[in-house]
Please model this.
Amino acid sequence: MARYLASEAPHSGDWLLALPIANCELRLEDEAVRVAVGMRLGLDLCVPNRYQCGSDVDAQGRHVMVCKKAPGKIAKHQVLNDVIWRALNAAGIPATKEPSGLNRQNGKRLNGLTLIPWQGGKPLIWDVTVASTLAASYADIAAVENLGPLNASALEFINNMGQKISNLPGDDRETQFLFQRISVSIQRFNSVLLHDSFSMDPQDQ
Model:
């Protein structure tokens, strides 16, 4: 039920609409497409195995998507943060990534800050957080709600940013392209995370 709802949510399938143009970071490798389609349809993706943290990875690879010890999660986060930063610059809004002196209550540094006002005379501070709707912690919510890949504030932010880019001399489909670029990046690193879960048996090395 959770997988079905997530796959039907707005923008969850934007990667399917992207033209596979490598220079625009919109091309998915064959294996990434296999994983993306499998996750969308709720198919088995791998042989169940034991991850490096000691937890079991099921045939759908769900644990590695949420495991804090998965090395690919850091790269996924950095790539998505870079997509946001470059989009702001394309909109003519200078911004800096991971500004010093601005930390959340948990002590972690925020992901970015615009260097000029964004709205209401105030700069924008953003933070990229990637959560998996396939995690067990979302199961009860997903049974009654349509969980999407982007929350309301993220949707508003991306729509506004795409519009600002479109207002400059360019393509009026910039919002669509931005959603696709984010979607493709997420699918690409879902494949990376899945492959991170495969551990070599010392006897096989």
In short: Residues 52 and 199 are 7 Å apart (CA to CA). Residues 2-200 form one domain. Strands lie at 49-50, 56-57, 95-97, 112-114, 125-126.
